[in-house]
Every structure is written in structure tokens, then in C-alpha cells.
Predict the structure.
Amino acid sequence: MFIGITGYNHESSVALVDRNGRLIDYYREESLSRIKGDKSFPKRALSRIIKANNITFDDIERIAFYERPLSSFLYPIKVAAKYLPESLGLLEHQFRNFKKSSVSCFLDLASKFSGLEKKLIYSDHHLSHTLTSLAYSDKHTELCSVVVDGFGDRSTTSISHVIDPLNIKELWSTDYPLSIGLFYSCITDFLGFAINEGEYKVMGLAAFGQPNNKYKKILSKIFYWDSQKKRLFADMDYFSYHISVTDSYSKKLKNLLGEPRNPFRSLFPDDQDFQNYADIAKAAQDITVEILCKIFEHAHSLTSCRRFLFSGGVAMNSASIETLAELNFVDQLIIPPSPGDAGAAIGSAYYAYLKSNISTKILVKPSLFPSKYNIKEEDLKVEKIISKNFTIISEGLEESLEKAAELISQGEVVGTIIKNNETGPRALGNRSLICNGVDHDAVKKLNTVIKKRSPFRPTAPAMKLTTAKKHYKLTSAVMDSYKSMSATCNCLPENESHKFPVTHIDGTARLQIVESCSFLDLLLDKLKPFGIEIVANSSLNVSGDPTCYDLIDGLMVCARTPLKYLITDLGLLEKKITNES
Amino acid sequence: MRSDHSPTLNVLSETAYAEYGSALEMLAACKAANKPTHAYGYFEHAKDEYNHTGAFLSMLSTRSQIVPCNTARQLRFNSSSVITKGYVDSEGYLIENLNIKDFIAFVYTNELLAKSSFEKILKLVGPSSIDGETISGIMRDELRHHGFAEEHFLHYYPALQPWQLRFYRIRETIKNKSRKLIRQNVEFLEKIFKPLYSLMSYLVARLVLAVNLDVFKRDGKNLLDIPTKSIL
Ligand SMILES: [Fe+2]
Ligand SMILES: [Fe+2]
Ligand SMILES: [Fe+2]
């Protein structure tokens, strides 16, 4: 057995790969701690993976940490040191928090899982990303891997040639502090959203912006691709993330873009400042996509490959994927369901596997629902919570699906806690909020009443492939990515889908093509007699919380929001009406 | 957190984190419970604490719309700060680290201790305002939690006498007081040692500047060939 671990600098998670190259379990620490973006040492995830799979320490051959700890600690310090005395605050902060840096992985393992620390090895940060995406590819040779993130080890962008899984050559990289991920985060912060959380909001907001607006011209001068030198350029005077603990942008950027947005002020399309901020978002989004295209061109020229792997946090920018997939030298573009650091635990577990002495090594394509969950762990415990607050209106999957379909056809929103968890960050049906995807009122209720989402954020539609072909322009190079909601696509011209509530203002949708025999696939079968072929699918959680993991989390969402129905492995539950609700 | 915002905003923000920490503690206890009645009790308690968090965040939100952007940015709620701010211990939840008796005793005493802090907040927002009413509602919830914890405690540990509960309460009060004292001392020492820390950071940074990290560049290398034990 081989374990991969991420944490400290970014979201922590743990993955388990067996001797046959199969991903057999995976947990994000936030799912278990219930703290969104939890980056502490993943003790709960590791304990759980050991317990749920009945393995002993002896069964574990190697544990791979997803980055080189000293590198990721020293590199930012070295950069900050160039900006002394301005950067003194950051440097002091880094030194004082040495124990919280990934250098502590060894010590944390030794103190909490004594004995396992001897099996600890380290992978390169971008190699972990590459191996994560490689696992999801059907072919494992002659690929080009492009990794773009905020920061890992020392670099922020890299191009590697995957000759085969054991021969992956890095050909080009961009070093910190030049970073597409951190540029995007800086704009996220400027627009009043939380870094590492609000990037999706910027992407949604960008659709309201005017193309080629004045901010695009301004930002293009300080952050661009240098075509001659084939490298990224950033005028660091406008950014502060490399010299400050609290600020990501400098005064100079404020002089350039105007007043940053107060995070507590509303941002509705009718608000006075809305267009201005949407234009800034649009500018940042377009610059990001343009630079990504240049990097892909460069990657193609270096490797001559036509099949690409794309990972790192920036690969979560689903709105950029279609443009990349349509580049004339791209035959295939693989994006793993969790391209960010949380998903890198999968790649590092594969790294441990590849470094083992097993003679023939194969990477088996992981499931989209790898996090093991068994209702048996909870069914007795939740007895009273359910009997006090809920009525079980149907038992058994078949009957529950039928009843849920009926409710959805009547405009209701239904939550799901069914079997295993998704890899994240997207909910693909097992931990989702579902309603009729063409019913404007139902989608509005899901969005604003239950999720309290910003009005400019679109809700994603889920459907079968045959339905998708009728309404949306699919790109063959990313067919697999539609299964994990990793890419957006355009509505077909003059198609009714332009009016669907799950279509964004710019005529795109981040659609999910459901995997056959998955829960959503079965539900869509039951919805067919009602004439419903498209459902809206959003993750089951209260805004600010991680997506639900177990039944108790799902019951809690019902208790805290107006959500009335929850389909579970125990049956379909309906919340009892009390005075409070 | 810098203290350049108005005290009310700071108090509301910190209270929201404290309530959020309690919600997470209760949810963890719910999941760790082995009896359906206990799970139900903790579930309801967690739900209340989540609602309290929401109430304080909404009070914070209305008031923060008019403050300068930089102040507002610092007040933005970030779930994982619940650990860095110490409202949830970085070593784990109480239920993961304490025995069940100590855990219930902790809940019992803490609910009562919270009362005095709420009274202070009530003064800040004005007792007769809408927010004041919300806070009074929260205080009623907290008293109810305290009552449940007491009942629970006496039911499962009938040998325990009320005086023992008082003992637990005194112990927690002392602990809270000493935590405050330690914090004040740390802040004091911090002031004294700050120049020294800065000087050390400065010197180490100059040293790091001299380290040539280029040898660890990967250009043209097979990434699978880099030694597995290398931390650089
Ligand atoms: Fe990364
Ligand atoms: Fe509370
Ligand atoms: Fe309470």
C-alpha cells in the first residue's frame, strides 16, 4: 500500500494506492474536520484511511509527501530577502511559523503515527500534480504536462514531457514570485473575495465584464507573456504577496485600478460599482486565458505533443479550458477532477507506488467517487436526530429515486448523501443539491434561499451525453472533463439553452455529463417521464462550509437552511415542519 | 489581528469565531457519540452554535460596510482562522483529546462563563436594538445548553455532587484567567523581544540570500530520478 499526503501550505488530504496501481481511498481533511480549506497536518484523514481500509502500519510500504519541504520554505524567504527591509514583517512571520511549515511533516508523522515517519519520502510539487493528471489519462506515454498554480517548491508554472510514467522530464519552468495563480488571487483579493476561495466568484463575475476594457490594457502592461524571451513577466511593484503577510497588492495597483472593493458591500448587477468590478474581473480572466494559450503553444513547441495534461490550481479555472482545448495543436486535454493541491495527494501516492520495487507498474484510472463512505457507521447514531426532525417518506433506492423525481418535477430542491464522496471540489451528484435545471424558480430557490450564493455565480447543469449534444457545443478534446465539471462550454447558436437558468450570462455553462450508472444517471432516468432531462447541480453545503461528507453533515444542512428533502442511503427524508422553520 | 478597527467590530468578529469554534466542537462530539440521545443533544447544540455564528457575522457585516476597505478585508471571516486564532486547538477537538467526563464538564462551565462576555456585547450593540434582542436570544440558548450539560452530567455521573460541578467551574474560571494572564505576559515579552526577532530574521534572511538554490533547478532532468529523501 502507498500513501500520498498534502498539507501545511495548502489544503491537506490523503490518498491510498494499492500494489495494483488502483486508487482505493482518498480524503480531504476539511471533509472530516469540517473547516473549509483546512491545511493542518491531515491526522483525521490519515487515521480514517488506515481504519476504513483495515490496514496496519506494516502494510504501508511508503508515504510520499507532495512537495520538497525545505525548498518550499526557503524559496519564498530568499525572494523576500531581496526586498529587505520592506519584507521584514513577512520574513519574521515565516521564521516564527517554521514549525507550521511542511518541514514538520516528518515530526507530525513521528508524533502521531510513530513508525510511519521512517517510510516518508518526498516528491516534487509539480511532479505530484503531473502524476495526479496522468492517473486520469487513458494513455500514459508521450504526453505533455502543463502545471500552473500559485506556488509549489520553487516554481509556479512548468512544462514537462511525460515519455512514460517513470521518465518525466521537466523542460521549462517559471520561478516564484512570477505566478499566474497569485496574480489571479491578487485580483480576487482586490475584488473583495477571499483568496483560495473566491477565485470562482471572479470567474463568474468576469462574464458580466466588457471585453477589451480599459483595465485589460492597464493590467496587460504589468503582467504579460514575453513572446521573445518565452517567459512570464510581472512588474512586482504592483504586487505585495511576496513581501507582505497581509497584502497581496500594493498601493501602486490601487492607483492603477481605483478603490478595492469592500468585502461586506453587496455586489448585485444593478449596483453602481458592479460594472467596474466586473470589468476588472473580465480583464484578469482574459489575460489569464491569453497567457495560458501562450504557455500551451510553448509546451507544444518544446515537446511536439498533441495530448496534454493540465493541473495545478489554475486548472480549476474552468472558463479557460474550452479556449485551450480548441488550440489547433491540442488533440486531447486531460484535467483531473481535483487539479489543485488537495488532489495532489493522489499524484504523490502514485509517486510512492512508482518508486516501489513492483516489477510491472500500471496506473488504473481512479473513480470519480473515491472517498469511501458507509452509512452503517452512522445509521444507529442518527436514529434520534432523524426521528425528531424528519419523516422517512420512502425507503430503498428505487422508491426514493421515484419519489425524488416527483418532488423535483414539482419544483422542489433535493439534497443527496449517497454512497461514496466525490474527489472534490465539484459535487457530482452524491453530495449535491439537485433541482429541475430549466425551472427558473427552482434554480433561484437553490441558489439564493438555500445556498445564499452571490447572484452573479452560475449554477451548473448536469445531464446525459445525448441531451448535452442537443443543447451545447461540446469539444472533443475535453470530453472526459465534462464528467467532472472541469470545463465550461457554449450553448449551440439559437438554441433554447440560452434561456435556461443554468446558462450563464455569457451563454456558457459548466456542464456535467453524468457517468453511466452513477446516482445522477439513475435519477435522470426517473425524471424522463416528467420531461426533465437537465438538473441543476450544486454542492451540498452551507456557504463557507466544506461540502458535506457524511449523513450528519447533510442533516445539519437541512437543519440550518430551508432545504426540506434529503435523499440518503436510508431512504428519502422530509424535514418536519416546526415553529422554528 | 491588528487592533485598528473599532472595538465593536473586533468583538463581533472574535465572538463569531468563538461561536463557530463551539459549533465545530459540538458537531465533532455529535459524530463521536455512541448513543442516539447524545448524538441528538450535540446535534441540536451544534445547530444553535452555527446559528449564533451566523447572527454575529450578520451584525458584523452590516457594520463593516462603512469602514475603510483595508479594515474590512481584515474582518473578512475565514473558516480556517478558527484554528490560528486558537478557538479550536491545533491538536484537535476537545472530544478527540479529553475524556468524556472532562468534556461535559467543560461544556457545562464554558456555557456559564460565556454569559458575562455576552453581557458586554449587549452593552456595545445596545440592549434595546434588534441586535440586542438577537443577543438576548443567544444568551437564552446558552443558558439552555448549560442546563442540558448539567442534567447530562448528573444523569451519567450521579455520584457527582453539585459542589463538584462548582469545582469544575472554578477550575475553568482559573484556567481562563490564567490563559488571559499568559496572553498578557506573552504580549509584554513580545514587545521586549520584537527588535531581537526582527534582527535575527534580518540576519538569517541575509544568509539565505547567499544560498544558491539554482543547483536544485530541474531543467532537463527526469523528475523521477531526484532522490526520494531529498527535502530540497
Ligand atoms: Fe500546487
Ligand atoms: Fe453560542
Ligand atoms: Fe452554547
